[in-house]
């Protein structure tokens, strides 16, 4: 079964020169799609999402119900509904009631909200994992809540949250392919367009998968480096 | 009088941890608090700088600064209370992502916003005083327990408090490292610091303390100079405790 599957791929890619040519010709538009849309969409959404996540985490850790309640509802709503549905609500839904947002910003909104919700749980857990004594020590040298959070707690929490946040980031890279469904001309949409023209579905979708894989592999190397950097201060 | 503690009470749920505690601390006095675990001694110490908020009671400082517990406290009042004292923790609680020097400069530099050169000089002189001048660039995990605790003392001194609080500063240390920390504390005593020390080191308490307070079940059972509390206790509970600590087996 596996062997047949592999054979088919190898066949599709190499057995005929036409396939190989198509592979080469489609590479450029797909890479363009990645550079113009997939990567910017990921970076912008992740940056905005992390800010949202931090804010939400701090709200959830607060003692005031006025702050924790909206944060809880937000996280629950985003985690309880499919990303694709959220994407469609922002683009088609809002568009149909007169609030038209372009595809790219629509995608940024949906993905940022998504990262914000999942990331907030990660950040909240990593802040909670820092021993209470660190807060107390900060307090005894005169720090207020904000100072303690910024200078003592978050730098330590950052180290704890890097591996799970990297997961979120890598998931986001792949989830951006959903933006093809709201007409963002990103990597996967390019693959779909070429496949629709040439009927070479296997070749083009495998090609797209390989490109995603390369991007994610590069990201995991970056993750390792960040972790090593943050581990400098910590005994193993 | 440097600080007077009046009618301090605190409970956690149904448990009365502190029952109507009164203490008077004179300037330059060294008070050690001893007692069995669960007697409330650590809680009492933590009430003095607002790490624990008592349910009732009053703290009155020599300069007229006063905190009345049992009513809503202003943040500013609590900040001022914690600024009065430096705290040394049983488990050091050093900032692991900062070097020894950065641990010491963090308070004066980023909280008190003092001049950088001045703070660096101060920090280096304090680290020298605790015998760690050559370790200033090491991170906490690169230091032994005794060295970490001395950084902890240096960090507390650096905010230039009026009062130093020690919460069982040697309890987490290997026996051979206890001496270094106690020596630093003796030096501070000689310099005339006002200190409140929760400890199990009765010999140390006898040597440095002006007053020893023996606590049990949230109350002060007995207090007085070491010669009285340790050598001629008037209370049965005190002598039992001292016997047990001095002859553990």
TrEMBL record, chain B:
<keyword id="KW-0813">Transport</keyword>
<dbReference type="InterPro" id="IPR030679">
    <property type="entry name" value="ABC_ATPase_HisP-typ"/>
</dbReference>
<dbReference type="InterPro" id="IPR003439">
    <property type="entry name" value="ABC_transporter-like_ATP-bd"/>
</dbReference>
<keyword id="KW-0067">ATP-binding</keyword>
<feature type="domain" description="ABC transporter">
    <location>
        <begin position="3"/>
        <end position="242"/>
    </location>
</feature>
<dbReference type="GO" id="GO:0015424">
    <property type="term" value="F:ABC-type amino acid transporter activity"/>
</dbReference>
<keyword id="KW-1003">Cell membrane</keyword>
<dbReference type="GO" id="GO:0016887">
    <property type="term" value="F:ATP hydrolysis activity"/>
</dbReference>
<dbReference type="InterPro" id="IPR003593">
    <property type="entry name" value="AAA+_ATPase"/>
</dbReference>
<dbReference type="Pfam" id="PF00005">
    <property type="entry name" value="ABC_tran"/>
</dbReference>
<keyword id="KW-0547">Nucleotide-binding</keyword>
<dbReference type="InterPro" id="IPR017871">
    <property type="entry name" value="ABC_transporter-like_CS"/>
</dbReference>
<dbReference type="GO" id="GO:0005886">
    <property type="term" value="C:plasma membrane"/>
</dbReference>
<dbReference type="InterPro" id="IPR050086">
    <property type="entry name" value="MetN_ABC_transporter-like"/>
</dbReference>
<dbReference type="GO" id="GO:0005524">
    <property type="term" value="F:ATP binding"/>
</dbReference>
<keyword id="KW-0472">Membrane</keyword>
<protein>
    <submittedName>
        <fullName>ATP-binding cassette domain-containing protein</fullName>
    </submittedName>
</protein>
<dbReference type="InterPro" id="IPR027417">
    <property type="entry name" value="P-loop_NTPase"/>
</dbReference>
